[in-house]
Amino acid sequence: MKRDAVTDAPSTAGAREVEQPSTARLVGLDLARGLAVFGMYAVHVGPAPGQDGVIGFLMELAQGRSSALFAVLAGFAVALITGRRTPKTGLAGRQAVAKVVIRAVILLALGTALTMTGTPVVPILAFYGLFFLLVLPLYRLGAKPLALIAAGWALVGPQLLYVLKPMVGDRTFPTVGQADGLVSLLFTGGYPALTWVPFVIAGMAVARLDLTATAVRTRLALTGVALAVTGYGGSWLALRFVPGAAEAVREAEGGSGMSSMPSMSSASSMSSGSPGSDGIFGDTPAGMLVASPHSEATLSIVGNTGVAILVITVCLAAMDAFPRLRRLAGPVIAVGSMSLTAYVFHILAIWLLDTEELTLTGQALYILLGFIVSITVLATIWSRFFQRGPLEWLMGRATQVARRIRRGESAPGSGAGAPYGTAVRGAVWGCGPRRHGGHRPAHSLRGLTGQFGNAQVPSSDDVSAGRTEPRSVARRSAAPRSR
């Protein structure tokens, strides 16, 4: 299933170089999203980890890492919308910022609604909405500054959360179905922004790189391996050689419901602790040395980031190196291209079918297979007739209001240096008539992490020249549409 290439043209006046990422690279991102969707399904309805054999290993692998992969891909979304390698400025920058803000607001509302259904799952969408808003001021930075900020945040954020948790939430998650607003999103929720934003910033940093270059991909893969070894290996060493750390973790695990802590009996064993269970860190600072799923510790962030980078790099490289694999992976790619729909589908299915009781009867594996087969068949059939998933299409329609922002018609002080605040005001005011361009939305930018139905907007050069379509769209408008 072939996707059209998407052009992120620099919007700076005078820029002439147009960036054209390969189709295979964007399909690789859809493949990574599809794997992340299946991982989330495994965590929410699959068998409990810790079993022997391949099934137990796969269930363990999905714990915490699939949601971290989603968060890293969310960073890709912000970078793709705002210009990827060359951040957009001026009019195009303000419109891109408005699109991200609109997506964030919709995800906040949708995530809150799903949370209030009372399912045993903690939906991540509301947290994603806040993540988008928190990282948006960084969208003009390059790969190196973003990587440094992500590293610094990963070092400081967990320690700060450990100090603040007793003041705002007593280190426990809110009850299932409880949406306690900003406090939950920042500190006490299943994906607290204070420790999850580094994933998003890391994704933005990776998206700024030239991912078509083999050398860059090789360095990224090695970086992913190094981060994973540092995070998980560092935790393994710390819990065994820091005096009293292992004993403190055992006591906290047995006494205060520190369900996200690893078992000390096995180096690779981790419990199935999930967000919304009992809490993080426990009552001991030794919890900060644990790298198990959702421990919210620095070593956990480092290890999960490494796994996410490695998965994305492998997916991108595989789609380039093995064209036949693209056809075989078509159903997974279809799921990844409508990952927002796939995610909401499984939350609603869990709510309607009450799968929690069924999983307790030993049918968890069959339920998981049913979920995966259902969404794969639906996504494959849907993609043959429509370019975007149903929720992705609605999101794309909602963000079209960003195109109503016009040069010189937004609030005072809306120059290229201040797109973040003025873009929101311009989107609300909606000055000027809506432009009806002949180009279609760039559907390769769709997905849960914000790439749903993102229409290409004219650059500042196009506007000054009186063109209603960006050059990149005009060049491919005569080409037949491919599927």
Report on the architecture of this protein.
The chain is an all-alpha fold. The protein has one domain (26-392). It contains 19 helices and no strands. The longest helix has 31 residues, at 355-385. The N and C termini lie close together (6 Å). Mean pLDDT is 77; it is low at 1-25, 171-177, 255-279 and 408-483.
Question: Keyphrases for this structure?
Answer:
disordered N terminus, mainly alpha, globular, 483 residues, 60% helix, disordered C terminus, 19 helices
Please render the helix and strand layout as text.
Layout: H1 23-45, H2 53-62, H3 65-82, H4 90-115, H5 125-135, H6 143-168, H7 181-188, H8 193-207, H9 214-241, H10 245-255, H11 298-321, H12 323-328, H13 330-337, H14 339-353, H15 355-385, H16 390-398, H17 419-429, H18 460-464, H19 471-476
The profile of the biggest β sheet is: none
Number of strands: 0
| Mean pLDDT level | 77
Shape category: globular
- Estimated share of beta-strand residues: under 5%
* Distance N to C terminus: 6 Å
Number of domain modules: 1
State Rg: 22 Å
Residue stretches low in confidence (pLDDT < 50, at least 5 long) are 1-25, 171-177, 255-279, 408-483
Class from helix and strand fractions: mainly alpha
What is the succession of H and E elements? HHHHHHHHHHHHHHHHHHH
Number of separate helices: 19
Summarize the model shown.
The chain is mainly alpha-helical and 483 residues long. It has helices at 23-45, 53-62, 65-82, 90-115, 125-135, 143-168, 181-188, 193-207, 214-241, 245-255, 298-321, 323-328, 330-337, 339-353, 355-385, 390-398, 419-429, 460-464, 471-476. The relative contact order is 0.17.
